[in-house]
Inverse folding.
């Protein structure tokens, strides 16, 4: 049976465009406001949503996502609440893929088998564990297999083709390809070698490629979409939310979605 993620990517491909994946820190500025925001982002043109789980030590994230995580934690956001929010989003948007984006500590603390059951009940399609290396993911794969959760692999410009192929083995949905070296955050430009790196990732991983980290404007999204099956926007939306409010964040995603179409 074709997964929701595959259906989404195939639908976008049929429309001759890349999918727009939007990362949102759930709980920022409050759990209630973030839930409303996610509905609005989908209505504005987000094809998939990454549900960012706030974490106290987000080593892969730049200042914007760190700040959003602190706001969400101060608002009392917990993983069980995020899963309840996911369930309500799923009920309202039955075809929009939802991917839980988290550090491993939070998931392990929840209990992996319980997590799998809760993800399935909430209608979450996949999980991306930022800090879980290939060598340590033996614990989470059985949970994904048991509950039909897609494990989304992560590769970077520093990942060799041989290692990228191993990382993608046993995974599904898409491979998240980091476009720059370093932490998350808005960039003013993308590296000139990006097109070659994305093509190499496609060849090595044999999965659709979603490109993220640093994409902040319709022009950048359109440039990346020429070489990727999906484009991820995170820090630009979250930073706009923090500095200018939800209306401005939704407007940004609407303009990026429009530019990609």
């Amino acid at each position: 049976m074709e997964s929701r993620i595959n259906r989404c990517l195939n639908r976008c491909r049929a429309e001759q465009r890349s999918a727009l994946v939007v990362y949102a820190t759930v709980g920022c500025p409050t759990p209630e406001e973030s839930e409303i925001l996610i509905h609005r982002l989908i209505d504005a043109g987000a094809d998939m949503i990454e549900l960012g789980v706030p974490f106290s030590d987000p080593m892969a994230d730049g200042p914007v996502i760190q700040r959003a995580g602190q706001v969400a934690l101060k608002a009392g956001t917990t993983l069980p609440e995020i899963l309840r929010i996911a369930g309500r989003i799923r009920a309202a948007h039955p075809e929009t893929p939802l991917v839980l984006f988290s550090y491993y500590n939070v998931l392990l603390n929840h209990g992996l088998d319980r997590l799998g059951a809760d993800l399935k009940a909430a209608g979450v399609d996949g999980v991306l564990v930022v800090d879980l290396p290939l060598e340590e993911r033996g614990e989470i794969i059985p949970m994904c297999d048991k509950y039909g959760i897609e494990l989304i692999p992560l590769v970077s410009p520093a990942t060799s083709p041989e290692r990228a192929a191993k990382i993608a083995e046993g995974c599904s949905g898409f491979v998240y390809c980091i476009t720059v070296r370093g932490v998350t955050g808005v960039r003013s430009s993308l590296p000139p070698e990006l097109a070659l790196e994305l093509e190499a990732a496609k060849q090595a991983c044999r999965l659709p490629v979603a490109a993220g980290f640093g994409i902040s404007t319709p022009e950048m999204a359109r440039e990346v979409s020429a070489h990727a099956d999906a484009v991820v926007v995170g820090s630009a939306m979250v930073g706009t939310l923090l500095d200018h409010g939800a209306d401005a964040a939704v407007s940004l995603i609407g303009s990026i979605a429009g530019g990609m179409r």
